[in-house]
Structures are given as structure tokens and as C-alpha cells.
Design goal:
The protein has about 375 residues and is α/β, with parallel strands linked by helices. The chain has 2 domains: about 170 residues, NAD(P)-binding Rossmann-like Domain (Rossmann fold), CATH 3.40.50; about 100 residues, no CATH class. The protein contains 12 helices and 20 strands. The protein binds flavin-adenine dinucleotide. Keywords: FAD, Flavoprotein, Isomerase.
């Protein structure tokens, strides 16, 4: 048996950041393994050889955060290409800003109606604030109620039913509670302080995080096999918690995506990086990658996302399905973890939780601060 002080399973953002913290701050050796043939987990990107356009293999990733500590930490390992994400949706044949904002009103309604709605919104809410469909629904004003219904039906319902594979009539209206309406002309998708894409890509950034003399990386190694030969003192597992326990209580469900990439003999196909299709086609959104790093090519590459169920061996775990039943199942697994004093479950798969990249890093930075790591 090979003796290992710290074993990390998974070289995604979680595993990489933790490896760096242990190596740098504890000054201890770390072995990090991944069953894929590349580092980076789901933020892995690569250059398309023909066009030199950077592609995100597991779906489009735009970094945004207001957590300065996360920004500062990652900035040690990458230079940034500052990038404000613009997302539009095709609604009634028009390209409409998402989140829905004051300009969106004028895209979909006749000028008179749009003006009336804008006036009413500005009367009820301060400029540069956000409200939600739910709030507008509860308004006493019939016009604002109408606006809430319009956005619910045209922007939210179709997209959500495709995303989660649920018939529109089975989507509880309360789920739309948090869908924002922006009382502003700000057409950025995020309003975080820091918004950018790593200049040389996410893979390079993760490679730099892992580049430390105390960190050893082994790819194409599945924990299932490796554990037979590794005697570890501490195990940090960023893979799926149910898989670790051989699904003894059942499988934690995930939503997956069939991502289809298309190359076109055209300089640009879309007016912005992401286009949503709430009411047309089977895909939810299309993304034109060259926008992210402002890459120049006579050709362009888009991806189209077709949501589907997760099936092991067939596709990837993407989105945990948040409901009470699944949370209970996850907690049953978590109780098993308490049996071990030296095993920690982390990351989106270990925690069975959707984390944006910044929350992923934040989770690990906070974890590393605790005294738990022996
Ligand atoms: C479609 C999509 C789009 C996204 N877009 C954004 C975005 O625009 N902005 C944003 O902030 N966030 C985005 N995210 C979230 C982002 O992908 C996550 O925050 C991040 O990837 C989480 O990293 P992780 O290390 O926890 O998990 P992962 O990246 O999944 O890493 C886990 C690693 O563990 C390995 N592994 C698992 N089991 C084993 C095993 N048994 N043995 C060996 N290795 C194993 C896997 O191969 C994998 O490499 C998006 C997520 C999805 C699904």
C-alpha cells in the first residue's frame, strides 16, 4: 500500500483550490486524482484547433463574484479578460434583454403600453432595484399583474419546463417567485463587482493552481480502483457522495445536458454571447464562444443545450434536483460520513448542491480555514 498524507479526489475547482491551500499553508504533500483525462472538472476548456476559439466542454462558464477574497485568490493564478455577460431571449420574434428590464418593455410592447408600464414600475420601485414576478403578481395594479403574467409565460415557463423536464402545467407558480425584473437599463446578466473570464482559459488557471512542488496529480485514476492501493490519512472527496457509498440508500438524481457544438462558416451568428429560447426549439440556449474572450476568426462555434435526465455512464451530473425528498436522501448519506473522522465531502457533487464557481471556491477557502484538516 502506498502511504498518502492527503488524498484529494477530483481536480475540479474544489479539489484544486483545496490542494493549493493544504500545500501552501499546511506545507503538506497532496496527491490529487481524477478519473477524467484532464484537470479542471466541469470548468475545463480547450482551444478548437481550426479556429483557435476557446470552447467550454461542459457548458458555458462566466466568472462573476462580489466576494473579494475569492477574486483575490484566483487572481494569483490568472490574468483576466473583463467581461460583462449579455444574455438575450427570443420572445415573440424579438431579442429581449434578460433579466427583463425597462428596455425589454419597449422591445415586446407597443410604445404606449411600454411607457405606461415603465411609469408604473418607477412609481412603485426605486430606479436600479430589482423586483420579482411574485411581487408584481401581488400588486393591486392590474397592469403590473398583466406584466407579471406576461414575463412568467413568455420568459420563464417554457425555459424552466425544458430545463427541468416538467410540463408547464405542473410548474408551481411559486417557483417563479425569484424571477427578477430589473427596474433599470442595465443589460448585464450579473451585477457582481468582479466579472471576467480567465485570459488563458479556465484549464490554464487550474493548472497554475496545481503547480506547486507539494502537489502531485494523477489523471485517468478512479478512486474506486485507487483506494485498493492507497493508504490515506485524510481523504477529501469532491466526487458524488451517493456513488462513494455504492448507492446504498438510492441514487441522488441530477439533471443533465446534451450539449451539441456546431461550427459555422460565418464570422458571427448571434448578437450576443448567449441567446435563450424559452418558447421555441428543444434546446434552452445557444452560446457563441468567441464573445467570451473576444476571439477573432472567420468561423464561429456555438453550443446548443438539450436538457435531459442524468444517466450514469451516458452523460454528466450537472444540476442537483433540489427538493425535500432528495435533500433527505443526501442527509442520510451525510450521516454515514460522520462515521469517519478523516473523510470530507466537498464540492458540488460531495455537497449535492449547485454552486457557481465563486461559491465553490468560497466553500473551499472557508473549509480550509477551519481546524478540521489534521
Ligand atoms: C452547465 C453548467 C454551466 C455553469 N456555468 C457557470 C457559470 O457561468 N458561472 C459560474 O460561476 N458557475 C457555473 N457553473 C458551476 C461550475 O461548473 C461549478 O461551480 C464547478 O465546476 C464546481 O467544481 P467542483 O470541483 O466542485 O466539481 P467538478 O468540476 O464536477 O469536479 C469534480 C471532479 O471530480 C472528479 N471525480 C468524480 N468522481 C471521481 C472518482 N470516483 N474518482 C476520481 N475522480 C472523480 C470528476 O471527474 C471531476 O473532475 C456551471 C455549471 C454547469 C453544470
Amino acid at each position: 500500500m502506498e502511504k498518502i498524507k492527503n488524498l484529494i479526489v477530483g481536480s475540479g475547482l474544489s479539489g484544486a483550490v483545496l490542494a493549493r491551500k493544504i500545500a501552501e499553508e499546511k506545507k503538506e504533500k497532496v496527491l490529487i486524482i481524477d478519473r477524467r483525462n484532464h484537470i479542471g472538472g466541469n470548468v475545463y476548456d480547450y482551444k478548437d484547433q481550426e479556429t483557435n476559439i476557446t470552447i467550454h466542454k461542459y457548458g458555458p462558464h462566466v466568472f462573476h463574484t462580489s466576494i473579494k477574497e475569492v477574486w483575490d485568490f484566483l487572481s494569483r493564478f490568472t490574468k483576466w479578460h473583463y467581461f460583462f455577460y449579455k444574455v438575450r431571449a427570443y420572445i415573440d420574434g424579438k431579442e429581449v434583454n434578460i433579466p427583463f428590464n425597462l428596455d425589454s418593455l419597449y422591445k415586446v410592447f407597443p410604445k404606449k403600453i411600454a411607457f405606461n408600464l415603465e411609469e408604473k414600475l418607477l412609481k412603485c420601485y426605486e430606479f436600479d432595484t430589482k423586483t420579482t414576478i411574485l411581487e408584481l403578481r401581488n400588486s393591486k395594479d392590474e397592469d403590473l399583474k398583466f406584466l407579471a403574467e406576461y414575463i412568467y409565460k413568455k420568459v420563464f415557463l417554457g425555459y424552466t419546463s425544458k430545463q427541468w423536464g416538467v410540463d408547464p402545467e405542473h410548474i408551481d407558480a411559486s417557483v417563479s417567485a425569484r424571477v427578477p425584473i430589473y427596474i433599470s437599463k442595465d443589460d448585464r446578466y450579473f451585477q457582481d463587482t468582479y466579472q471576467a473570464i480567465p485570459k488563458e482559459g479556465y484549464t490554464k488557471m487550474v493548472e497554475n493552481i496545481l503547480n506547486h512542488p507539494l502537489i502531485e496529480l494523477r489523471l485517468n485514476v478512479d478512486f474506486k480502483e485507487a483506494k485498493k492501493e492507497l493508504d490515506y490519512e485524510n481523504l477529501f472527496y469532491t466526487g458524488a457522495i451517493d456513488e462513494f457509498f455504492d448507492y446504498k440508500f438510492g441514487k441522488l438524481p441530477y439533471r443533465s445536458l446534451d450539449i451539441k457544438f456546431e461550427k459555422y462558416d460565418k464570422e458571427y451568428m448571434q448578437s450576443c454571447a448567449q441567446m435563450n429560447y424559452p418558447n421555441n426549439f428543444d434546446f434552452t440556449r445557444s452560446v457563441e464562444y468567441k464573445y467570451y474572450l473576444d476571439e477573432k476568426s472567420e468561423k464561429t462555434i456555438l453550443s446548443y443545450e438539450y436538457p435531459c435526465e442524468f444517466e450514469e455512464g451516458k452523460n454528466e451530473r450537472y444540476y442537483p434536483i433540489p427538493n425535500e425528498e432528495n435533500q433527505k436522501l443526501y442527509e442520510r448519506y451525510l450521516q454515514e460520513v460522520n462515521e469517519f473522522k478523516n473523510i470530507y465531502f466537498l464540492g458540488r457533487l460531495g455537497d449535492y448542491k449547485y454552486y457557481d464557481m465563486d461559491k465553490t471556491v468560497d466553500r473551499i477557502l472557508k473549509f480550509a480555514k477551519t481546524k478540521e484538516i489534521k
